[in-house]
Amino acid sequence: EVEKIRIKITSLSLTESRITADETIQQLFVECRLNSFLAEETPLSLPKPRSGQRIHYNYSTVINMDKEDNRAEREYLKSILLKADLPADSLKFTVVSDPPEDEQDLECEDIGFAYVSLKDIFQKQRDIIEQDIDVFDSQDASTVIGKLTVTVEALNALRSVHEECKND
Question: Which segments constitute the RPGRIP1 C-terminal domain (predicted)?
Fold first, then answer.
């Protein structure tokens, strides 16, 4: 059993918000970050969906967590399981606006954030499979601007790390 965390970013939908109204936001990609170890992004940026539509990324990535080569990652997972609520105990998904080709002077801009708590996955003993998670406005964390459909399979890796904690 190779220990890994599998992450899939399936699709994104937006609700009516400043994002759908903003003409300068045209192309979107999604970045996924686990603390400082991993930042992956969808290779494609896709045209912003109209309200009620979905754009499909179908992007998957795998973080290896085997004992030999990934001590730091495993120590980090241990800290998630052992310590009280770490602000960093989540996978963070960022929806990013990619400026159009002809406007390269514009910066990529983070427009929304979504989170999956690894601790929750362990406590509920349940991976997240094709689940819609809320995307919060980067300028106002109380406003939901859309849904990101993701899969996060981390339970095996978390269980393994938990076993290791008991044996330490």
Answer: 3-164
